[in-house]
Amino acid sequence: FGSLLVAIIQTLRAMVENARNNDDTEGCAAFLLCLVDCLLSCLEGALEYFNKFAYIYVGMYGYSYFEAGKNVITLFKQRGWSVIIADDLISNVLTLFAFIIGMLTGCVGLVMNEIEESWFADYGGAASAFGFAFLIGIVISMITLS
């Protein structure tokens, strides 16, 4: 049910975007369409975030979607916004760790280039060794930490 609500909002946003892209809209109408698009975007983001918690309740406790939604609202009221802030900070910390791991594997790529220069000679030497290893490290760590 939650995905249906998000799909309806996305459809409304697509209709507003289509109306905004028409050459007929000018002045006040264009401003109102921009405002409606912004409001729908905010509503879509909040609903997707709420759905994530509601689906977790459905999966963990077997509640119906509506019952899970009520429990999520109760959770937010009891805990305040600390749950949301913690969830947001965790994603930032995991991204930082993935970047650090990418930097470390990039350094491993530089060491590999020093040990055997012929491996990366055709691709630009040290810069390509670092870039290739960094890319591998960050992709694997983002997959692992997500």
Could you characterize what this model shows?
With 146 residues, this protein is mainly α. Helix content is 84%, strand content 0%. It has 5 helices and no strands.
Keywords:
single chain; mainly alpha; 146 residues; 84% helix; 5 helices
What's a concise summary of this model?
It contains five helices and no strands. Helix 1 runs antiparallel to helix 2 (28-61), helix 2 packs across helix 3 (65-79) and helix 4 (82-115) packs antiparallel against helix 5 (126-145). It is mostly helical and 146 residues long.
Distance between the termini: 25 Å
Enumerate how many helices there are, as a single number: 5
Q: Any idea what the radius of gyration is?
A: 23 Å
Q: From the helix content, strand content and strand pairing, which structural class follows? A: mainly alpha
Tally of extended strands?
0
N-to-C series of helices and strands: HHHHH
What quaternary form is this? Answer: single chain
How is the main sheet built?
Answer: none
Strand content: under 5%
